[in-house]
Amino acid sequence: MGDRADEGGEGVTTSKSRNKAGAGLKIERVWTTEGVHPYDEVAWERRDVVMTNWRDGSINFEQRGVEFPESWSVNAANIVTTKYFRGAVGTPEREWSLRQLIDRVVDTYRTAGEEYGYFAGPADAEVFAHELTWMLLHQVFSFNSPVWFNVGTPSPQQVSACFILAVDDSMDSILDWYKEEGRIFQGGSGAGVNLSRIRSSKELLSSGGTASGPVSFMRGADASAGTIKSGGATRRAAKMVILDVDHPDIEEFVATKAREEDKIRALRDAGFDMDLGGADIVSVQYQNANNSVRVSDEFMTAVENGGGFDLRGRLDGQTIETIDAKKLFHTISQAAWECADPGLQYDDTINDWHTCPETGRITASNPCSEYLHLDNSSCNLASLNLMKFLRADGGFEVEKFVKSVEFVITAMDISICFADFPTEKIGETTRAYRQLGIGYANLGALLMASGLPYDSEQGREVSAAITSLMTGTAYRRSAELAGIVGAYDGYARNAEPHKRVMRKHAAANDAIKPTGTVATALQREATKQWTLGNKLGDKFGWRNSQASVLAPTGTIGLMMDCDTTGVEPDLALVKFKKLVGGGSMQIVNQTVPRALRSLGYPEEQVEAIVEHIADHGHVVDAPGLKPEHYPVFDCAMGERSIAPMGHVRMMAAVQPFISGAISKTVNMPEQATVEDVEKIYFEGWKLGLKALAIYRDNCKVGQPLSVAKPNKATADTQAPAAEVEKVVEKVVEYRPVRKRLPKKRPSQTVSFSVGGAEGYLTASSYPDDGLGEVFLKMSKQGSTLAGVMDAFSVAISIGLQYGVPLETYVSKFTNMRFEPAGMTDDPDVRMAASVMDYIFRRLALDFLPYDRRAELGIFTAKERAAQLRAEAEAEASGADLTAMAASAPVEAPEPKTGPVAQPAQELADAAAVKPAPAVGSSTELLEAVIGKAADAPLCFTCGTKMRPAGSCYVCEGCGSTSGCS
């Protein structure tokens, strides 16, 4: 990895590219004060970081006495300590202060910048280091996670989070793909690959046999990713698999994940543990990758006009089959409707904005679809926190934003000089083309705080102008760097197409027609940056073939205390906040009162509206709030959720100003149809997007077939709130009271057999108010097992009498695995993972209402049969599976007695208040407020329910992500 050469053979340049004639960057102070170190400007405090699994209280991580600024939230400090501090816990080598972490990274960047000739002199290097330190310390921006993992450590200096691989039609290449992908996963990053060069299963091998086809080779790669995922340390494996729409195996590829979801349903109903991370989910294939179809303008035009479309052989390009384009498009949309895969990538649009077409086409992307460039390449990311540039008067710090982009893009380019890469091919391409991915987070929060609806023309104008200014400034600085340390090696052969793309960006900027003062100021400055940057580029070329992407900003978004990630709107108006010293509470997002003040509401009305949101989770009927201001507070989920096309229009507004693409999933309601998916995918093409994925609520068949509907009365009583700096208003206190069963109570006894072990379950009820007592017998009196079962029965019974809901026990003890396990003699529960699994499934069937059991995925044999019939009818008619299941000709049985007993009223004048359901994240809090389960997966590390971040998910508990940054 010493010297590097461009693929086109234009010559070799040494890796230590020096500046020209002693010139270098003159760095001016923006955020810092001369003579004052950034660390001396903040108040520091020591904290104890103890991370527990909120479900069972077990300690996942512990480090005491870590040092952070007082302004940093508990969550941000916890995530940085657990994810980014290096060294073994409990040893002197372990980092314990944010100062050490920032110095480790910034000192490496400064040293490399001086070594490779970026600065005019040592004083400029020092100012650069101080400015970077200040910005990181004050959460103005963050590098992507691999920088924090690796830079300044003895580990390889890997700085990239996103990788694109290549695979050819040979067994050696396919095996190299497996190996290279595994190496990237091992380093905590993700990779994408296009399999379209592999010949189809409809073509012949040189030996005369029939080829296996790309889908068969996907199985091996999927199994490899799943194995590495299960042992991941820093982050889980993430991958993208892409197939061109004209590949003869395209229909098989489209159907892969939808078919596997059917398998999940069948195995789950047979009693297997098919939860995310469950013991039996490994039997399902193709679950470790996002799938995307590369569609061409030719194909989309055939869809639009109703024509035929040719599928072409990989060996000679000859037509193997001609299909109905509309039918294939419907099949793609049907599969996405069923299981969220595949997404679409619009090939001609992607390559029309490609700066390096003379080197090769763009065929693939990283797992989250924001990085799109050459095969065998990588991209390092960094994201700016937009809320740090919003002034108190509602204006935007345009000049500071420009200077901040300069600092960040310079640092990112410096990192390529010293970075290590997982393979030699990736290292060569990345050094030759120097792909960067500057982006931002907190766009949704910025718009709301400014009093602008996310789905509005003004909101899109501001977003487009910010994005144009960011990318225009990044390319202008890239042109300046080219004048100092040289253009990227591949620039000479790609000079004309690179200039053409720069002109396209500038023309898109000119097409913005701002109406507000903020958007006007941003667009005016963006015009200056594009004009100057293109002038410099004509003279010097550009240092980087790519400058910007919009990444999910999952972990680093939490590190920067961002309310929203990437280009996303707010998830909801209330969120889950961890407190110093332990504990947590529900708060109304800090953005809300700021938005209300921006809209001109007096303080007393702000407080009243915030209190209403704390109680209800939405702004509908909030006292004094004008209905025309409701859209300002629309969110991704909840009472007033943004329409799917609102998300698409925002993506279309910012896409012309992004070098790569946008990591974002368009959420669709459960009742959306396949035709709605078709419309979204078609409009994405028309609006000029590069990539698009959808997710329909509850589309995963592994999720419950139906969920509890919102219950306003219950939600109102279950949504606690708290007083925190006038943002949170009310705390609900609860003291349990035991309600004993009467001397004479109804009961039933069930005999059972699990894996050959026999026993008896006796359940006693309140006369009119649910289960209150459980006794289990499985062995001779006096034996250890009998004693343990007796003690367990008493503990469960007392808990029920103190008001612990039965569904809480059911959720905890179902799927618990230990011997004896296996077949049962119960027709409703044919398989059990353990005796506990069986007992609580049986109790749920006997005492919980249908909608509660549906949330938990527990059904009688009769109900399952009805669902399967309904699904078969739905497949035949194309109807909504969930709606058919809900209308199946089976009456949900009533529980044998009423709901689970709740505590009695202790005092005559005290209102009986139900305890709020336990929550461990903002997603679970939102579920409690709206009364509807979200499809977000559970975190592999700590068990907390994750929240969406672009097209990935992020855990608020520990910072783990399912994808990039």
From TrEMBL:
Question: What is the required cofactor set for this protein?
Answer: adenosylcob(III)alamin
Query: What InterPro entries does the record tag this protein with?
Result: RdRp_reductase_class-2 (IPR050862), RNR_2_N (IPR013678), RNR_lg_C (IPR000788), RNR_NrdJ/NrdZ (IPR013344), TSCPD_dom (IPR024434)
The question of whether Thylakoid is a record keyword is answered with no
Segments for region (Disordered): 1-20
State one molecular function term (GO).
cobalamin binding
Give me the reactions it catalyses: a 2'-deoxyribonucleoside 5'-diphosphate + [thioredoxin]-disulfide + H2O = a ribonucleoside 5'-diphosphate + [thioredoxin]-dithiol
Domain named TSCPD is located at: 742-845
Keywords attached to this entry: Cobalamin, Cobalt, Disulfide bond, DNA synthesis, Nucleotide-binding, Oxidoreductase
Q: Which residues form the Ribonucleotide reductase class II vitamin B12-dependent N-terminal domain?
A: 49-139
* Domain Ribonucleotide reductase large subunit C-terminal as annotated: residue spans: 160-695
- EC code(s) of this entry: 1.17.4.1
Q: Name one GO biological process term.
A: DNA biosynthetic process
What's a Pfam family this protein contains?
A: Ribonuc_red_lgC
Presence of the UniProt keyword Chaperone in the record: no
Q: What does this protein do?
A: Catalyzes the reduction of ribonucleotides to deoxyribonucleotides. May function to provide a pool of deoxyribonucleotide precursors for DNA repair during oxygen limitation and/or for immediate growth after restoration of oxygen.
Q: What is this protein called?
A: Vitamin B12-dependent ribonucleotide reductase
Q: What is the scientific name of the source organism?
A: Micromonospora sediminicola
